[in-house]
Design goal:
single chain, 65 residues, alpha+beta, globular
Length: 65
C-alpha cells in the first residue's frame, strides 16, 4: 500500500536520517523503504547501475566485512 502512495504522490524523506556517502546525500523512503539519493534536481531513487561508484562509502552503521 505504501509503495502505491509513493507512486501516486512522492517518496517521504526523513531529513533526520540522511547520511553522506562521500558523493551525495542518501536515505530511504519512510513509506516504502526505497533507497534514495539527492542529486542537483532533488531526491530520486538510487539506481545501482548508474549510481554505483567505488568512491561511495557504506552507511555509517554498516558493519565492515
Amino acid at each position: 500500500m505504501s509503495s502505491i502512495i509513493c507512486r501516486l504522490t512522492s517518496h517521504k524523506i526523513n531529513r533526520n536520517r540522511v547520511w553522506y556517502d562521500g558523493l551525495h546525500n542518501r536515505t530511504n523512503c519512510e513509506r516504502c523503504g526505497l533507497a534514495m539519493i539527492r542529486s542537483v534536481s532533488g531526491w530520486r531513487a538510487f539506481d545501482s547501475e548508474s549510481d554505483d561508484d567505488p568512491r561511495r562509502t557504506a552507511h555509517p552503521s554498516a558493519s565492515p566485512n
